TrEMBL record:
Tree of life domain: Eukaryota
GO terms of biological process kind: early endosome to Golgi transport; intra-Golgi vesicle-mediated transport
Keywords: Golgi apparatus, Transport
A Pfam family it matches: TRAPPC10_1st
Coiled coil: none
Domain spans labelled TRAPPC10/Trs130 N-terminal: 7-312
Protein known as: Trafficking protein particle complex subunit 10
GO CC terms of this entry: cytosol; TRAPPII protein complex
Residue span, Trs130 NTS domain: 420-534
Statement: the UniProt record of this protein carries the keyword Metal-binding: no
Residue stretches making up the DUF7077 domain: 652-784
InterPro entries, per database record: DUF7077, NTS_TR130, TRAPPC10/Trs130, TRAPPC10/Trs130_C, TRAPPC10/Trs130_N
Chief location category: Golgi
Amino acid sequence: MVVLDGKKVTVTYTDEFGIWQHLADDFRQHLPLRNLHWKSAKGPVRNIPVLGVDLKRFNTETTERSHMLPETLPYLNLYFVNCDDNETYRQIVKTQIREWLNIAESRRNQEWLIVYVTKQENFRNPARYFNMKGTVFDKIKADFNTKRDRCVQLRLSESESEDYEAWQELIAKIKEGILSSFDQFFKQYEEDIRRLDSQRSMIGWNYCTFFILKEGLALTFEVMNIFEDALVQYDELEASFFQVLKDRALAWFGNFGATDPNDDSANILDVKKKQYRDLIMQNSISEFDFRCYLFARQCQLLGRLHKSVEICRRAQIFISTFSRSIKEHQANVGEYFLESWIFSSCMSVVNECEELAPLTSMDDSNTIAFNAAKGELLDLARKQLDKIGIFYDHLPASLPFTTSLNETIPTSPNEDNETKKKFVITNKELQEAIDSQNDFDVLYLSLTNRALRAYEGSARLRSLLRLQGDVAALHFHRKQYEDAVQVMEDIPWRYGEQGWIVVENNLLFKFAACQKELDEVKNLCSTLEKGEEINRQFKPIFAVSVSSIVDDIGDEDGPYLSVELTNNLSTSFTFDQLAIRLVSGQSEEIWFGVCKEEIKPGLNSYKLYSDNSASGNYFVENVRMSIGKVTFTHNFLNESKKKSFRINEHPSVLRAQIIAPCEIHIGEPQYFLVRIFTGLSHVDEGKLALEPVSEGLSFPKSEKYHSITKSVIDEKISEGKVSEQDLEVFEDGKIKIPPSQSNQLIEFQIPYDCTWGAIEHKVKVSAEYKSKGKLRVFTSVDTIKVWLPISVNELNIFRDDCLFLKMDITLQGSVPVRVLKTDLIPSKVYDVADNPSLTLPSLNLFGKQHASYVYKLTRSKDYHGEEKSASTQIHFVVDYRSLQDEIENYVEQTLNTILKSRNLFQHSQFLIENVKEHLLKSVDYVSYGMTDVLDLGELDVTQCENLFVTHGSAKEALIDVVKEFWKTSNQTSNEEIMLVSNDLKSSISFPVNVPSSKVLNTVELIISKSHDFIVGEPCHCRLIVRHSSYWNHTSSTDSKDTFEFFYDVHVDFDNWLLAGHKKLCFTLKVGETKEFPITLVPLKTGHLLVPFVRVASLNSHIFSETVYLNNAEQILVRPRTQSATFFIEQQHRIHSIHSGAGFGGPGHHHHNEGMENVEF
């Protein structure tokens, strides 16, 4: 295969001792090299799993053509030495190595390695240990080694394990040398390329020289099997060539070319058919040869990467784009050179890739992609046969063969045309096909069958049908009617299913003609009967347009489309159905229709209603009108200006939605709240389907859901009669909607599961119901936010007879909340002795703030431990209201009031959603929370107009509604907002697990010293530990039970010295008190913290708490007082020092007959 022609790294060897013949076989057994790793200065580590090596004898010629064939340059030069005599080495071998090394080092970027070969018995010879001068190998290392170790010893042994280890050392050195040489080549090429590229704008810059340098780097990568980086170089060369082509700077190319023999038929992937690199270096390569060579090199590298699909895809792009350039030079290359070149190129690529595909492990998706790409290339080649066949009168100039022609059918070859260059196709298959019609048919059918198999393997139904139709047309043209009937038996109807009406009719005509020629009367009648529908376009018989959508609240049937249809016939008739399909960007569709209406000559107007209710923006896609078995269609999306409409939720129809509940209980199964509002509809029966759209969301199966039904009066839920019932769940998961009157609200809870912590979910809600005998459908996609705006942290502080629980509320997110109320719900075990309340009606919680609440808990007097499994869990309930919800609720109520006053309430949902999403972005909720004034900012009129672009005649009215709202609501006070949002409230219940302490130890450090502490003086203390089981609620504790504990005194040794047990194990009974002596010695003056004492149980299963009464207690330590007495007599001083109190206090002097006493 041409695409798998590979290159190997060249390694030379020099053998002047005749040992290569003994090493060659063993050496080649260790090839190819495996697991090489190259780290470039800029990129990641490149892993080279396998690297082929080409071993050649060292050439002493120093001539070298730089950059000509970089893949043939040696990367490593090996010199094998086999000499055990030091004198021989000194006189002969050393000089030989030096001469070889001088030549090797004179060659750029080549590494060298001296391999000293010896047998294992020579290495173990005892005489070598008495050789004071050292071995020959030692001398070689001393004479020739540089900073890098370039000498290696190969010890041949009869033992396989020792022989393997010796070879591994040599192979490792060879890998190191090759990688070092490659790195030098890489750096040299990068530097040369960077330098030449920087000179691109200078006069005299040559693209061909730049190409040779860049390709040299690519060839270097290819030799090292780093094919991805090599391909990147050619892709960059292709991009730079297109820039040159764009700038029309093709002075480096001789001419366009494509005039050499066999240029139209040669294998496009063969890079050896011409001396391309020589032509490039000589600046004489043509544009045709250059682009073919560049494409072939890219495909060759893709072949080494086993990417047959990518080869086919690139071939399609290259052939289609380069064909335009060839066509521009058709006067020079000759007529039908292009068709022959495309045919040959496509077949070359397909044949190469079919050989490459079995060597590539492809999954199903890659196999389908390969078949599709291969089929398109075969199809492209077959289209060239259509052109050549028509030109040489082998095919008729009619459909479907003329679909391949992109220009006027050329003149016959028998006609003289002096202006066109005479060109002879050199492709042998095409030559035979041109000379013989039978050979043409064989080639045409074989090529089409190959393309059919490829399309069949890629599930390309339309392409498959098209080619089958071409085969049938060929058989029909050749009057091979039986073969034509066999092919056309099924495909006309399948063409109709795909909407190819013209082709279907053409094939039906030929099918009927074949049956007539074969005298198949019954089959002919069956074909002409046309039991299926006949599809035709509206034009020229009819003209249709959608004028508007009418949204009338008073119309119980909902909105309707106003359609105008012009009948250009002179007679009246009745159509069965007229239907228009509207589609949205979310893959939703709605059909509007009307049945059994008369259509008169001229202009007719109709109202088309829909049984579906799904609000959103829709485009008019197509219209269908059925009259018997004839269906007229028209696609509006093909028109230059597409019509779009906004469909709103009609208040008369049933609406269903799924929302987040107002009350959330953390730690319990979560649920959504489903609401079904009947509106003005009387529901006879129905089904509700909830389909999760968000990933990871699911609804557990249930047999029924408990629902509550309430009445709704003037958009407000009535507090009157409430009925309850269970809603049945069908096998398909749909929920039964019970018979309901108008203006009723059905609510029920549905639990859900989510595999990951999303902050919002999307659910598609669909309701099918019957109202007044009509089946209607409601559809919407609801977004449910489930994230919590606040979080809670807890802190437990135990005491002998109570527990203090501190709850900290912090804000999650940037939108402030109002904390309306907090409450702590007690459990069977604990009572809340003190429940704090807010001093203000509410508390605003902003970001980076927290609100703290402290509760006092005591053991419940009614609980005596009789229930061992009684839960200690209490619940902290927070009632809150988000400031964003507060404002949005006010906006919603205010806008609804304005809309109702202007009879535009049908636009409520769309208007409110978009005002919240787009126009309230500038609202500063922090400022609102601090000032209690709503500042809406300036109204963006342009954005406002863009929101209502699909509302037609209602656009201006809706803009006026927004302007009025902005005018009346800007700078609204919190008191006004609370008039409509005061009842808005959400609640979160946080579970709080109060730890169950089996044992509570009260620790007190009693200091027996009555006077002040003096630094350095010991202080005797008593450590008293009292045991209590007050907080052990799980069971009654026997007074005889004994528990093992230990205490640990945490001493800051910078401040204190401890005398006594720092840690001590002891036992306690229930209610017992123990005392332990310890001594503390203060080391510093000032206020010192009393050391902390911790008591813990030796049993890890017993949870104990410690109440340290001296926690954070400080002791004042004073300095030691000193005094000195001086006796002064006849200029002599006697100095004695004794201790006393009051250092730093008021000093005094005594003068008494030659004696001076000083205290300090």
